[in-house]
Design goal:
This protein has 9 helices and no strands. By secondary structure, the protein is mainly α. It is elongated.
C-alpha cells in the first residue's frame, strides 16, 4: 500500500476513534449534563419543589422521581451531535497535521495548536462555522497575496500558524453568537418538572415566546460571556 493510502487510512482510523469516543463520552456523562443544566436554570422562583443538595443527591432524586428517561432527557440529539463532531474533528485534525508536516520532521507545539484550532473551526457548529472560516480565509489570503505579490495558488504558503489559529477562533466566535439561543432553549426544556410532574415549558416555541416576553433579547444570551471565554 502506498504512503498516501496509508495516510488516508490513518486519518479515517482517527475519525472512527473520535466518533466512538464521542459516543462513549455522551453515554456516560449525559446524566451529569442534565444535572448541570438544572442547576444552571434554577432561578429560585419555584419554591414548592425540594432543592438538590449536591450532584449525587440530584442524580438520585431524578432517577427516583423521573426514572431512567429523566437522567437521559435530550440524549439522542446530544449523542448524534457528539459522535459526528468528534469524528470529523479528528479527521480534520489529522489532515491539518499532515499538511503542516510536509517539510518538517516533527511538528512544534504551535503547529499542533494550529491544527487543533483549524479542526475545531471546521467542525463545531457545522455549516455556520465552516462558512465563516472559509470566507475569513479568503479575505486573509487575498490581503496577503496583494502584499507578497504571490499567486492565489500558493495560499497554503501565505498563512502561518497564527493565521490559522486566528481564523479558527474568529469563525468559532461567529458560530457561537448565532447558535447560542438554541442552547438556552434546550437548557430550559431540560428543567425539572413541577411538583405535579408538569413541565414548565411545553415545547421550543413555548420557550421562545416566554423568554422574549419576559426577558427580551438578552434572555437568549444568558451565560454567553462564560461560554465565549471557555471556547
Amino acid at each position: 500500500m502506498s504512503t498516501a493510502a496509508n495516510s488516508v487510512g490513518w486519518q479515517w482510523e482517527n475519525a472512527t476513534a473520535g466518533a466512538v469516543a464521542g459516543l462513549a463520552t455522551v453515554t456516560f456523562s449525559h446524566p451529569l449534563d442534565v444535572v448541570r443544566t438544572r442547576f444552571q436554570v434554577n432561578d429560585g422562583r419555584v419554591t414548592n419543589l425540594p432543592t438538590y443538595k449536591n450532584t449525587p443527591h440530584a442524580l438520585f432524586t431524578i432517577a427516583r422521581t423521573e426514572g431512567f428517561r429523566g437522567l437521559y432527557a435530550g440524549f439522542y440529539p446530544a449523542v448524534v451531535g457528539s459522535t459526528i463532531s468528534w469524528g470529523l474533528y479528528f479527521l480534520f485534525y489529522s489532515k491539518a497535521k499532515q499538511r503542516y508536516s510536509r517539510d518538517r520532521k516533527e511538528l512544534s507545539p504551535g503547529l499542533h495548536l494550529a491544527s487543533a484550532a483549524e479542526a475545531g473551526a471546521l467542525v463545531t457548529h457545522g455549516a455556520i462555522q465552516f462558512t465563516a472560516y472559509e470566507e475569513l480565509r479568503k479575505v486573509v489570503v487575498g490581503y496577503k497575496s496583494k502584499e507578497s505579490e504571490l499567486s492565489s495558488s500558493s495560499a497554503d504558503d501565505l498563512l502561518n500558524s497564527i493565521d490559522y489559529a486566528t481564523l479558527g477562533a474568529s469563525s468559532k466566535l461567529a458560530a457561537i453568537l448565532l447558535t447560542y439561543p438554541s442552547q438556552v432553549i434546550r437548557s430550559r426544556l431540560q428543567q425539572r418538572p413541577s411538583k405535579d410532574g408538569i413541565p414548565r415549558y411545553m415545547d421550543s416555541w413555548h420557550v421562545l415566546k416566554e423568554t422574549a416576553r419576559f426577558e427580551g433579547f438578552r434572555g437568549f444570551y444568558k451565560g454567553i460571556t462564560a461560554n465565549l471565554l471557555k471556547n
